[in-house]
## 1
Amino acid sequence: MSNAHFNRGPAYGLSAEVKNKLAQKYDPQRERELRAWIEGTTGRRIGDSFMDGLKDGVILCELINKLQPGSVQKVNEPVQNWHKLENIGNFLRAITRYGVKPHDIFEANDLFENTNHTQVQSTLIALASQAKTKGNNVSLGVKYAEKQQRRFHPEKLREGRNIIGLQMGTNKFASQQGMTAYGTRRHLYDPKLGTDQPLDQATISLQMGTNKGASQAGMTAPGTKRQIFEPALGMERCDTMTIGLQMGSNKGASQQGMTVYGLPRQVYDPKYCGGPELLGEDGLDGLYNSQ
C-alpha cells in the first residue's frame, strides 16, 4: 500500500482557505529549534523534510522513550502504512500519560495526511515545555508553574467569612453620616429649588415629586362634588342644580311648545297639513271635525 493512497487531493473553496490560514501560522524558526532538540535527544537525523521525517512515528516514539523510558513498549518498523499509524498513536498516548494536555495534542491524520502541520508543531512545543517542567535540559518551550496547594486552619477560614472580599467591592471610607434610624425615610432635596432641608416626616421627598407652589384654593369639602364650568360660554358658577360640562350644556334651551306632562306632542308636516290653526283643541284635524 503506497503513501499516495493516504494523501488527500487538493483542497478547494472553504477547505483551501482554512488550510492556507493554518499554514500561515507555521513557524519555520520553531521548526529549526524542534529539529535541533529532537536530533540531540534521540541521536537520529530527521532529514531534509521535517514532517516527512516524523511521519513514520519511529523518531517520535524514540523521543518519548528518552524522556520517559518504557513509554512505548514496541516500535514498529515502517513497512506498511498501518505500522506508521500505530507508531503515531502509541506516541500520542504516551505523551498524554507524560502530562501533555489533551487540547494540545494533534491527531494522527494531522501528521500522516499532512492536514495540519501547525498543530503538530504546537504539540511538540508543548511536549518540550512539559519536559522542561520535569527537569530536563530543554532550551525550547516554557516551564509550567508548579502547583502550590495551601492548607489553612479551620479557625482561620471562619475568620475570613467576616471579611468583604474585593470581588464584592470595598467598604473603605464608607460612612453612615446622614443615615436615619432603621425603618424611617431618608429625605432628599434639591438646593437649586430654594427649598429648605426637610426636618420632619411630613415633608414630601423628591422620590415622590415636589409640592412647591401647590395650593388648596377652590377645593371643596371631602365627599362633595367639584363643579366645572366654562367662563367663555357666559355661564355663571355652577351649583348642584346645573348640568355640568361632563353631561353637556343646556345653554339656549327652552320649554316653548312643550305640552302638559303626559299628553302626546303632535308632529305634522306642512306639505300635508294646512297649518297648526287647522288642528282642533283635541289635536285632530279640523276638516274631519267639520264633517
## 2
Amino acid sequence: MAAPAALQRSVVFPAGRHTASLIFLHGSGDTGQGARAWIKQILNQDMAFQHIKVIYPTAPTRPYTPMKGALSTVWFDRYKISNDCPEHIESIDSMCRRLTDLINDEIKNDIAKNRILIGGFSMGGGMAMHLAYRFHQDLAGVFALSSFLNKDSAVYQALKKNESVLPELFQCHGTADELVLYSWGEETNKMLKSLGVPTSLHTFPNLNHELSRTEIEKLKTWIIKKLPVEATNE
C-alpha cells in the first residue's frame, strides 16, 4: 500500500537562522491555514520568531462520529465529545504515525528533537499529548489550549510504565468553556502531574472555547523559554 501523502501545512519561517521548530495542531473542523489566520487576527501579526519555524499542518478529512459521520478535518475520531468514554485509539494511533513523519522532516533539516515543540488547540492539544507522551518523550515540550484527555486515556496507561524524564506541559483553559469543560482540562492536568509530567495550568476567567491575546502572549513567552536562541559557534 502506498504511504499516505504528507500532511498539508502552512509555515511561518523564522526571520533568522532556523534552529528550532514548533508544530501547532488546529482544533476539529479547522485547517492549518485557519489556525494561523486566527492567531494572526488575535495578535495583529503572525506568531513568528527569530529562530523558530512555526508549522501549522492540516488534518486529513475523515468521517467524524459527533457530527453523525459527516466528513471533517479532525486528527482522530471520538465516540462522543466527553471525557467519560473510550478513546478511538485506532484513529489516534494512525495519526500519530502521520505526525511522526512531520517530526522526522524537521530532524532531516538538522533540528534536534529536543528543539521541537508540539501542541495545539482543543482536539489539537489532545493529539499533541498522545504524540509526545506515548511516542516522543524526548521533545522539548507540549502545549494544550482548551484540551483534555479521556478518563482512561492511553496516555495515562503509557505513563504508568514510564521511567524517563518527560517533556513539560503548558496548559491553558477558560473557565467559561462550554464545549470542553474547565474541569476536564483540570483533571487532565492533575492526572499527568501525578504520573510525573512537569505541568502548569493557566486559568482564564470568562474565556469560552477560544483563544485570547493574553493566552497567546503567555504561550509565546513559554516557547522562548523552552526553545531559547542558540549561541552561534562562529
## 3
Amino acid sequence: MMLPVTRVLAFGAWLVAQSEATLSAPTISIFLKPPGVIPPGGSTTICCICERGYGSFVLYKGSHRLRALEQSGSMAEFSISNATYEDRGIYHCHYLEGGTVLARSDELEVSVEEPRLPRPHLSVLPGYEVSVGDDVMFHCTTTQPNTSCYLYLEGQIRAQLFSREQGDYNLFHVQKGDSGRYSCQCYTMSASREWSAVSNTLDLVVRDYTLCNAVRLALAAGLLLLLGLITAEAARSRGCGSQAGTAAGPLR
C-alpha cells in the first residue's frame, strides 16, 4: 500500500526541520575583556556570546544565580568595576529561550590579585601584519627572573603558556582566526604565586592575500572584457557608418 504523496512530503519536511534544529543547537562562549588576573580596584567585563541573538543570558557565580545580562545582539556583558577579592570565583553563563535553558558555557575563573612583579612587554615577529600560512613568534619580556608567562587572546577563555626557557610562543601556519588583540602576563613559580600586571596589547592582523589576488584578477578580467566589448561596439559602429555613407553617395 502506497502512502499519499502529501504525507510523504510532510514527513520529509519534518525530517528536514528536525535535522536543521539538531545542527543549529546553540553553543555559548564566555571570556574576560580584557583578559588576565585583575588587580584590586581594577575593572574587567565578563562577555557571553551565542550565535543566536533573540534569547537571553543569565550569569552564575558557582551555583548562585547573579542576574540576567544586558544583551546587545548575540553578546551579553557583565561589568566588574573597582574589583575586590569578593569578585574572585568561577563564573558561567546560561542561554535561554522562552525560559528554557538551551546552552551552558564553560567555566571561567576570575582572579583578583595585587600585582607585585614588573609589567612585561609583548612583541611579535615578523610584525603586526602577516599573511595566511606565515609563522609568528610572540615574545614576552620581563626583568623578573624565574617566572612563567601566559599569552592571552581577547575573546578566548584559555591562555597559552610561553616556553619557560626562551619566553617565546610560536604560532605556525597562521589563519584568519588567529587575528586579534594579544597580551601577556607573568607569575613566579614559587609556592606563593605572585603576578605581574598585564602587558601592553598588540593587534595581530592576518591577511589572506590569495583571496585578495583572486579578487583583483577577477576585476582585471572583467575590466578587460568590458574594454573588449566597447572596442568591438566602436568598430561595429564605424563599419555601419561607412556602409551608410557608401549607400548614400551622389547619383550620376
## 4
Amino acid sequence: MAAHMRWGLRHLLRARNTAHLRFPDSSYHSQCTTRSFRKAQPQSGRGNTHLSIRPLSIQTQDTPNPRSLKFLPGKPVLGTGTLDFPSPSSAECSSLARNLFEIEGVKSVFFGPDFITVTKADEDVEWTDIKRNALEAIDRFFESGDPITTGAVYHESSHSEDDDDIVSMIKELLDTRIRPTVQEDGGDVIFKGFEDGTVKLKLVGSCTGCPSSTVTLKNGIQNMMQFYIPEVEQVEQVEDEVDEINAKVFTELERKLQE
C-alpha cells in the first residue's frame, strides 16, 4: 500500500501543469519597471546602408528581499538551471557577473533561466545608481554576444541510484513544485541532504539574507514537505563552508569601512 502511494505521489508531482506552491505573503508588492534600449541595425538598400532602430526592453522587478532586484532582459539568460555568484572571486566564469560586481554597492549576483538577480551590500545603499549601471552592463553584454558563462550550471536536483524513496520524493517535490516558485522571486533552493528527518537546503539568489527566508522555509517549504512526505520532520537552512568564509570576510570589510 505504501509503495503504491509513493508511486502515485511521484506521478502527481511530475504533473508540471499543476499549480505551483505559493508561499505565505511576505509583505511585499512586486513592481515592474521597464527600460528600453534602442539599438541600430544596419540594413542595405540600393547601395546605401540604413540604420533601423530595434528596441531592447529590460524589466526590473522587486523581490521579497529589499536588498535584491530582479532584472528580466526579455530573452534567455541561462535557459535552464541557475548559477550563484556570492562574491567577486566566484565570477571568473562569467564576464557579465564580473561587470556587475564592478558596480559600487553590489554584493552578489545570481543567474536564472530568464532573469538576473543583483543583491546590494546594504539597505542604506540607494538602488538608483546600482540599477542604472546594472541595466547598462546587461544591455552591453547581450549586445556583445559573449557566452553567459563557461562554468557549470545547477539544473534539477541530481537523482542517484543510491537515493532511497524518501530522498527521491524530496528531490522530485523540490524540482516540480518548490523551485519554480522560488525562482519567480529571484532565488533558488538547492538540496544538500536528508538526515534523521531533517531536510537540509541551501537558499541562493534573492533568498540569501532575505528577512522572510525563515517564513519561506518553515511555513512554505517545510509544511509542504511534511504534507507529502511524513518522514520529513523539519527543514533546515545550511551554507557551504566557502559561503560562510565569504560572509565573514564581507562582514569584516563592512565593519572596517564604517570605522
